Amino acid sequence: MAEQGKELPGYVQREFEEFLQCGRLEHGFLRVRCESCHAEHLVAFSCKRRGFCPSCGARRMAESAALLVDEVLPEQPMRQWVLSFPFQLRFLFASRPEIMGWVLGIVYRVIATHLVKKAGHTHQVAKTGAVTLIQRFGSALNLNVHFHMLFLDGVYVEQSHGSARFRWVKAPTSPELTQLTHTIAHRVGRYLERQGLLERDVENSYLASDAVDDDPMTPLLGHSITYRIAVGSQAGRKVFTLQTLPTSGDPFGDGIGKVAGSSLHAGVAARADERKKLERLCRYISRPAVSEKRLSLTRGGNVRYQLKTPYRDGTTHVIFEPLDFIARLAALVPKPRVNLTRFHGVFAPNSRHRALVTPAKRGRGNKVRVADEPATPAQRRASMTWAQRLKRVFNIDIETCSGC
Q1: Which of 23, 85, 100, 388 has the greatest number of CB atoms lying within 10 Å of its CB?
Q2: Domain Transposase zinc-binding: where (predicted)?
Q3: Cα(85)–Cα(181) distance, rounded to whole angstroms?
Q4: What's the rounded mean pLDDT across residues 137-154?
C-alpha cells in the first residue's frame, strides 16, 4: 500500500497499535492487594478494541451474554435465525455500514410478519421481538458480514387489561425458509436498486460504480471476502489451504433456505426453561473473531488457522503469509460508531412493551424503582460486578487470594 501512496485508515492503525499494548504492564496496570496476607498482584490494562483482540473479545462475549440473558431476553422460547448474503452485499455492508441498518430493518419485518401470521394474528394485536448481533467474520478469518438474530419463538398478544400473553409458534419448515429467503432477497435487491447501489440485468446483479469508493480498505475487503491473498507477490490468488476427504451433504441438512447466494437457517432454539443453553447460544453469537486455540505457526514462519468445521470440499486449515495475515485482521476491523448489536420489536429501547416483557423491567413509561424497595432477582443479577461475571462464565475467581 505504501508503494501506491496509500495507508490504512486511522481507526485501523489504532486497532493494531492498542492491540500491541493490550495486557502489557509497561503500558499501565492495576495493583491488587490482599487485605489478609498483603500479597500483591498486577493486572495489566486491556485495549478494549472490538476488531480482533481475542482477550478483549472474550470479555465482551461474556458480558454481552450475561446482559442479554439477565436483562433483555424473557423466559420464553427463543430461536436463532442466521442470514448470510452473497459476496457483493458482504462487500457493500462492510464498506457502507449505514446501508446495513436499513437492510436489517427489512429482514426483521419479513421474519416478524411471518411469525405474526403463523400465530393467526395481525400486527395490530401481536408483537414479537429480536436481538441481532452482526458478525463480520467467517471460520477462515474471511470478511463475512452476516446476521445472527435471536427471535422470540412466537408473539406477544395484547390483552384488554393492558397485559400481554405469549403465544408459541411452530418451527419454520424448509419450504417456509426458502420462501422467506426469496422475499428477503427480493426486497433487499429492490431497496438497493432504488438507492442506486445495485444494477440488475436478466441473469445477474452488479454493484453500481457509485457503491465502490476509492478507499484504501477496498482491496483488502474484497480479497478477504473472496478468500484471496491481498498483498505481496501472490496477491489475487486463492489462499493456500490444507484439505482432507470432502464431507458429504450440507452441514445444515434440509433446514435451510437458499436463494441467489443468500441463505437462511433457523434450526437452533432454546425452550423457556433452558436458560443455560440460551446463555451458551448468546456467547456463541457474540464470540470474538479470532480463536487463539486454532492459531499456530508453521515451520516456515507462516500463520496456520484451523477452521471450526471443515468445509464441504474437505478444507481444514488456511495458511497465510505474515503480511497477508495482518491484511486479514485489518479487514475485520469495523468502522467507528457502527453498532453491531441491534434491538427490534418489543426489545427496542423505545418500545412501550419493553418494560412489560424484559427481565430488567426497564423501558419507556416504567417508573423508576425507589431506593428502599427490594430489588428483583433480575435487578440483582444485572448489578453483578465484572469479577462476578468472570466467575460465572469462565470459573475465574479473581476475588480469592491464591496465597491465603
Answers
A1: 85
A2: 6-84
A3: 10
A4: 97
Report which residue type is found at 229: I
Who contacts 340 (Cβ-Cβ below 8 Å, separation ≥6)? 50, 133, 134, 136, 334
279/389 Cα distance (integer angstroms): 12
pLDDT above 70 coverage of the chain, percent: 85
Report the pLDDT value the prediction gives residue 9, as an integer from 0 to 100. Answer: 93
24 domain residue, yes or no: no
Distance between CA atoms of residues 33 and 40, nearest Å: 4
Q: Are strands 303-306 and 295-297 parallel, antiparallel or unpaired?
A: antiparallel
Whether 322 maps to a domain, the answer reads yes
**One-letter amino acid for residue 287 of the chain:** R
**Stated pTM of the model:** 0.87
**Residue tagged 437457517 (cell numbers):** 265
Cα 364 from chain centre: 26
Euclidean distance between CA atoms 282 and 133, whole angstroms: 9
Contact assessment for residue 161 and residue 127, using Cβ atoms and an 8 Å cutoff: no
Strand partners, 241: 318
- pLDDT reading at 90 higher than 90: yes
Residue 69 has pLDDT above 80, yes or no: yes
Q: What is the pLDDT of residues 122-137, one digit of tens each?
A: 999 999 999 999 999 9
d(CA 63, CA 201) in angstroms, rounded, equals 46
Q: Which domain holds residue 352?
A: 48-365
- Cα 326 vs. chain centroid, distance in angstroms? 21
**What is the distance between the alpha carbons of residues 205 and 320, in angstroms, rounded to a whole number?**
31
pLDDT in tens, 252-297: 555 799 998 999 999 999 999 999 999 999 999 999 999 999 999 9
Please count the structural domains in the chain: 1
Per the domain annotation, does 14 fall within a domain?
Answer: no
C-alpha 126/C-alpha 154 separation (Å) is: 10
DSSP-based helix, strand, coil % in the chain, nearest 5:
35, 25, 45
Q: Where are the alpha helices (DSSP H) in 7-52?
A: 10-21
Instruction: Give the separation between CA 43 and CA 6, rounded to whole angstroms.
Output: 38
Residue type, 29: F
16 within a domain of the structure (yes/no): no
DSSP 8-state class, residue 388 = H
d(CA 92, CA 209): 11
The CA-based dihedral angle spanning residues 229, 232, 235, 238, taken in that order and rounded to the nearest 10 degrees: -40
